[in-house]
Amino acid sequence: xxxxxxxxxxxxxxxxxxxxxxxxxxxxxxxxxxxxxxxxxxxxxxxxxxxxxxxxxxxxxxxxxxxxxxxxxxxxxxxxxxxxxxxxxxxxxxxxxxxxxxxxxxxxxxxxxxxxxxxxxxxxxxxxxxxxxxxxxxxxxxxxxxxxxxxxxxxxxxxxxxxxxxxxxxxxxxxxxxxxxxxxxxxxxxxxxxxxxxxxxxxxxxxxxxxxxxxxxxxxxxxxxxxxxxxxxxxxxxxxxxxxxxxxxxxxxxxxxxxxxxxxxxxxxxxxxxxxxxxxxxxxxxxxxxxxxxxxxxxxxxxxxxxxxxxxxxxxxxxxxxxxxxxxxxxxxxxxxxxxxxxxxxxxxxxxxxxxxxxxxxxxxxxxxxxxxxxxxxxxxxxxxxxxxxxxxxxxxxxxxxxxxxxxxxxxxxxxxxxxxxxxxxxxxxxxxxxxxxxxxxxxxxxxxxxxxxxxxxxxxxxxxxxxxxxxxxxxxxxxxxxxxxxxxxxxxxxxxxxxxxxxxxxxxxxxxxxxxxxxxxxxxxxxxxxxxxxxxxxxxxxxxxxxxxxxxxxxxxxxxxxxxxxxxxxxxxxxxxxxxxxxxxxxxxxxxxxxxxxxxxxxxxxxxxxxxxxxxxxxxxxxxxxxxxxxxxxxxxxxxxxxxxxxxxxxxxxxxxxxxxxxxxxxxxxxxxxxxxxxxxxxxxxxxxxxxxxxxxxxxxxxxxxxxxxxxxxxxxxxxxxxxxxxxxxxxxxxxxxxxxxxxxxxxxxxxxxxxxxxxxxxxxxxxxxxxxxxxxxxxxxxxxxxxxxxxxxxxxxxxxxxxxxxxxxxxxxxxxxxxxxxxxxxxxxxxxxxxxxxxxxxxxxxxxxxxxxxxxxxxxxxxxxxxxxxxxxxxxxxxxxxxxxxxxxxxxxxxxxxxxxxxxxxxxxxxxxxxxxxxxxxxxxxxxxxxxxxxxxxxxxxxxxxxxxxxxxxxxxxxxxxxxxxxxxxxxxxxxxxxxxxxxxxxxxxxxxxxxxxxxxxxxxxxxxxxxxxx
Length: 1017
Known about the structure:
Blueprint: H1 17-23, H2 29-42, E1 47-54, E2 62-68, H3 75-79, H4 103-111, E3 112-121, E4 124-131, H5 132-138, E5 149-151, H6 162-175, H7 181-189, E6 196-204, E7 214-215, E8 224-225, H8 235-238, H9 240-245, E9 254-257, E10 260-261, E11 272-281, H10 286-319, H11 326-361, E12 364-372, E13 381-386, E14 389-395, E15 410-416, H12 433-454, H13 456-459, H14 461-467, H15 483-492, E16 496-498, E17 505-507, E18 547-548, H16 557-581, H17 587-591, H18 596-599, H19 606-618, H20 627-630, H21 643-648, H22 665-672, H23 684-687, H24 700-724, H25 728-745, H26 751-762, H27 793-796, E19 803-808, E20 811-822, E21 827-833, E22 843-847, E23 853-855, H28 866-874, H29 890-906, H30 924-928, H31 932-993, H32 1002-1016
Parallel strand pairs: 1-9, 11-18, 13-15
Antiparallel strand pairs: 1-2, 2-6, 3-4, 3-6, 4-5, 7-8, 9-10, 11-12, 12-15, 13-14, 16-17, 19-20, 19-23, 20-21, 21-22
Helix pairs in contact: 1-4, 2-4, 10-11
């Protein structure tokens, strides 16, 4: 669609108020000043002068000027300045700082209300005027920017519209500090080089006390942040000279503030024992993914244009196939050349896309440089640069966050390119906070490794700092100014200075008379005492830093055991605190007790042993299972029905099962023995659906639907798998977490979990067993088939490779059995999950037959007929028959009666009116009439009295502990008084020996005594 078609549509406009709104992104005022310094650096300036000119008639009393010798701008390039968001520097490979096309506008408007720009390039002079005062006085809502230009030699205006030029100059004369054309030309004359730019900001922002935010009176060689105290503030936050000194990681441009050169620093050359660490990670993808999307979009557009041009060329060629005239051939050649150029452009953009896609998968490499700041040890932390520009400074990470002396005084430096992390518009933070936190975390790990490599802690931290003159106990106190300490510090950190002519960095050899020497601002290579580096044509020496390697410590089994013991101890303390504050008065309070009370792991402490022994007295072990239940095989879900659940259905008795139809023996056995996959309901809702008949097959629609659902679930899991791939550090952390959780899972199970497993095993029956006689419900069948138990080691190992689903945090996850462990009471499977969230271990131990595990398909096709094998291939196996329906077999009824007897005996109250031994001889009808309400009422009363005894015992123990604590506090107070008296006597003794000694605090006294002992050694 032609551009003319859009002429009638509405357009977005930039209002005058946006100038102020845009400036508020700069919370740090020096960051706004740095925006203008960045522009000079991007313009390849070798020098920038930042100075002030007094103008009492203007708000703030002075103008702030930025003058550089960069490449300048012609009138066309100057128009880009007034286009918000337009930048010619934006490209992935660019090393320039400016990327957003917003720094000059936002930075200057943050400093003052108005600015005027003078620039020179080639034979043109250009002036740009952006004034909020002008808009306020004239009542304008849209942004208007006068932009006149002149010829360099003739000083004549370069314009085809004299009226427009007259309006522009008139506005500049009226609202700027320069009232005539001569004054304007004087500003151009300040640009002495062949090209350059001068930016003047005036009508400065004021504080609440009507004083300017920038202080230029306190220090005439600096620009200070007004109202900022000297103490407790980093120098870069108070002094613009200090901030400009570390603004770039490899400074080349000379910076002058108020006519005096800034002693710029290469931080890696200002540190003691610097060391570099190579770091590689695939984590930083946000910026690279954006570049890939952009390149893909451009490649598609170029491909469409190339195809359209090629199609046009072919149609034009076919049209002119019989026309051999010279003009026609020339037109055809022009069309073909255009199509060829567009094809080349499309191929080039396609190659760029492929290169960026390849770079996206490659790990990003960074260099972490660490060293000790022995000049000012309190100035420590991480300095994070982006494309050589400082973004964050003094960021604490790793051991420095703990606040101790470990890693104190260590400075870290890293330069992050745009493709790794993208800064915010104000260049004071990073856009992706998550990836930046990951960067700091990685720097913290390498910082801890550097601290180990330097061996400072092993030699003694206090002794190390004493060696460099830090004799005070206060960490922020400056080092000693004695000559020997100054020499010691100067010997370790050689002076690195920049040549004022060639801009190369030179390292000066150590000389005794050079300590505290002030070098001139115009220092050149000829002044270098090193004969090999005393010429500007001599190559610059690269800093040769030793390389360190991060060594990750793997937790030993002892460390894991300690961590586990610590966690158990914390849980025990929480439980004891809960028991102290909770009083049990009724059965309702018993139900509110946390489940952890019964799930607490056993430890070796005497208190736990006492509690377990008391519990064993009040709650006897359940009797052994009947023989006909031990050797049965499961046809129902292995859930142990509780006594409460049994009492809710006391009158349900199974009806006589119908006569089974006559079928072939093989088929009847296969139908009577459902597969293990069918023995586990998919969910509670699925368990309520009516089950299919034994001989029926699953309908084709249901099979296909379930198969489709399984395939969809598999696809979702594969997508989540691909999203789960993170960097190597996160994977290692997950492995450590999974090992820890595996160790905790392998701890001995509690008595309650073993009881649930045993009850689950008791619930397994088999339909092939012949029914016992009616009058003898508790006698086992006379001829039960000989079958190996489930927990037989040989049979249990056959479970390896089973595909199962395991419930974790109320959600089911698929996995595979990779290991089997058996004991006398149960069988445990170790399941490796196909996919789980990062917070969940990748494998887990579960009990075979518990509610939290179910089979995905039968373990072996041997026990199935060909028909059932085909059903398994087509879809999930049918659900098992519902044993609560009237078609239940007599064997199930007998097993339920036996289980009810066992459970009644297990929870039997001590003084119940019915003898405990009579339960074994009760028939099914007698069990239905059993007084369960009275039974459980008496059981709850006994449990309440037991809990009350625990409560009283815990209260007595808490009272005893409180008495011990009070006595300990009294003794501690007495010891403090004695210590204070002893310190007072020591100070008095020292003052008698040395009258001029001045000790005011306990810390100073301790440091003085420690110093005496050290010197004595």
